[in-house]
Write a structure and sequence with these properties.
This protein has helices at about 5-25, 65-80, 135-145, 160-165, 180-190, 205-210, 240-255; strands at about 30-35, 45-50, 50-55, 85-90, 110-115, 115-120, 150-155, 170-175, 200-205, 220-225, 230, 240, 255-265, 280-285, 300-305. It is globular and about 65 Å long. By secondary structure, the chain is of the alpha/beta class.
Length: about 300
């Protein structure tokens, strides 16, 4: 076998052993073991329970261009069946294409993270339903949610909402424009036995929700928007670089004095500008929110702001 491929296999086995031991100790069943570490192998590889999720990034140099060859090599490396391997081709996304449905297999299954349960789907959407890189950010939300009114914006499948509820939040409000993801979020809440009138779900344009909502209504807000978003249900398009200062300011308006705003973005070229944002404090916490399986390329940038 080509020595370059052997080097790639050895890297996978080493990382799976290293990260897998840490994940088991911390009640984590979904984690990243590889992120484009070896030249010529432009993939990211994640474990989801007993399944492997492979993201293939289009690249000029790829020693394993054939999908069947890739899957067979991975199956042999980890002594698993090729049916346990799922693959996605990653291209630059435009507009809301990252949220488009790709198939309709309905192949949902449950995974565990920090003793909480979440539904994921490795076939029907570009993303799985659980962003693994925000594991620590979710934990920070849980640690600060007790007896707080929490708002989760651009909520996707509601993982932050689940953590807030697990942290004994007084109330949790989940906002997303997609019925699919709101239903998914509500199911995630129910699977963790978070059911009751204190949990609210709104299908709404986040920008409109922020403008119409009464000030000083929340104690903690999570703002993790897409890089760019536009749909028929939105009055305006959203660009995180252009609009982040305005949206952060609107979030701060909704916070009670001393309230916390967790703001994050996965836009790699993001340049923060909080010059005109009225906050008691603003601190970048990216390094504190990177987990052991995401210590290479930072997949996001995170900020913590406190309201005046």
């Amino acid at each position: 076998m080509d020595q370059t491929i052997v080097m790639f296999q050895n890297r996978l086995l080493k990382m799976q052993k290293h990260i897998g031991r840490w994940a088991k100790k911390n009640h984590i069943t979904c984690y990243r073991i590889y992120e484009r570490d070896v030249p010529g192998f432009p993939f990211s590889i994640d474990w989801y329970e007993d399944k492997l999720y492979l993201s293939v990034f289009l690249d000029k140099k790829n020693y394993l261009e054939d999908s069947e060859e890739r899957n067979q090599l991975l199956a042999e490396t980890f002594s698993m069946e090729t049916s346990q391997i799922y693959e996605r081709i990653r291209e630059r996304q435009k507009g809301n294409s990252q949220y488009e449905k790709l198939s309709d297999s309905q192949a949902f299954f449950e995974v565990e993270e920090n003793e909480l349960r979440f539904l994921v789907n490795l076939t029907d959407y570009l993303d799985t339903g659980l962003f693994l890189d925000h594991r620590i950010t979710r934990k920070l939300v849980k640690e600060n949610a007790e007896e707080k009114d929490v708002l989760n914006l651009f909520a996707y499948t509601g993982s932050f909402s689940v953590y807030a509820a697990a942290g004994s939040a007084k109330s949790v409000t989940t906002v997303d424009l997609s019925n699919t993801y709101l239903d998914w979020a509500e199911e995630n809440m129910q699977r963790n036995s978070f059911i009751g009138p204190q949990f609210h779900f709104y299908k709404e344009d986040v920008l409109y929700f922020l403008k119409k909502h009464a000030p000083r209504s929340f104690d903690l807000i999570v703002l993790d928007p897409p890089t760019f978003s536009h749909s028929k249900g939105m009055k305006y398009d959203f660009d995180v670089q252009r609009d982040h200062a305005s949206v952060v300011s609107q979030c701060l308006r909704l916070l009670r004095p001393g309230g916390m705003l967790f703001f994050a973005t996965n836009f790699r070229k993001f340049k923060p500008d909080f010059t005109d944002v009225a906050a008691a404090s603003c601190k970048e916490i990216t390094k504190q929110t990177l987990t052991k399986d995401f210590t290479g390329r930072a997949p996001h940038r995170s900020f913590l702001l406190h309201a005046l």
